Amino acid sequence: MTRPIYVSSGAFIGRRNNVSPDGFLSFCRDFDCDGFEFMNYRAWVPELDAILDRFLSVGVAFPAFHCDKMIGEGFSSGDPDEYRRACDLFRLNCRAAAKLGSRLLVFHLWNGLPSDRNFGRHLDALSDLYEIAAEYDLTLTVENVICAEADPLSRLSEVAARYPAARFTFDTKMAAFHQQMNEIATPARRALAERIAHVHLNDYGGVPGDFSDLRVLHLGEGKIDFAPFLTLLREINYPGAVTLECSCFNPDGTLAPEKMKNSITKARAMLAQ
């Protein structure tokens, strides 16, 4: 089976270029990939429809949609107005995903300064989020986001216990940060692994638990041993795609599309082993 490989638009859009999609849209058709994961940004909300039209105009597929990373913060405080705004933003993201033709949502249930410190509130909010996603015929996947209080796999286990149909996005850098790349491949975590519906494939070279170095590296630039995880994917007959979510900015802020092309080649070789 040939595993679909997607490229994250977020690898080329960020603070360094004021979240401008111009560069990505100018060369995205040159990538030998099977589609793209659209990364959404809060700054785009006032002109989101126009932004989406620009992405649609280049004629490439966006099977996966990464929601605004900060939505989950709105569930942390317990304030009803913040909760309502967060749900409204989530609905806006679902509407955008549907317009792009995406089928899968990547979602940070917790993030930012609140992180997972009030996780019970985030867990409760998922009920409403699943209902909203279903209205747009989208599969909502909760990502194993870095935690400040517990750890990602423990939090995903809580999600699985509450919601029997829960599905996850597994990010290799996030897992390496918490030293959970090998843990997900253990028999004790097999039931959790079988809920993985999407994968972010990227490398990590920092010290586990060091929040000062969260750089997303290209395959081979960090310290991750991917072999056990790739073996796990084969053993569970993982049915989904992998997204390369590796930053493609040069030190001077210019874009480096050739780095992504090299990562696509490496990923195909890794997945074929």
Q: Total number of helical segments?
A: 9
Number of domains: 1
Which strand order do you get reading across the main beta sheet? 1-2-3-4-5-6-7-8
The helical percent reads 25-40%
Strand content: 5-15%
Distance between the termini: 11 Å
Q: What class, by secondary structure content? A: alpha/beta
Report the oligomer: single chain
Averaging pLDDT over every residue, what do you get?
A: 96
- CATH architectural name: Alpha-Beta Barrel
The largest sheet is:
8 strands, parallel, barrel
Strand runs, count: 8
Highest CATH level, the class: Alpha Beta
Order of helices and strands: EHEHEHEHEHEHHEHEH
Overall radius of gyration: 18 Å
Q: At the third CATH level, what is the topology name?
A: TIM Barrel
Structure overview:
By secondary structure, the protein is an alpha/beta fold. It has a single domain, classed as Alpha-Beta Barrel (TIM Barrel), CATH 3.20.20. It has 9 helices and 8 strands. Strands 1-2-3-4-5-6-7-8 form an 8-stranded parallel β-barrel. Strand 1, helix 1 and strand 2 form a beta-alpha-beta unit. Helix 3 runs parallel beside helix 4. The radius of gyration is 18 Å and the shape is globular.
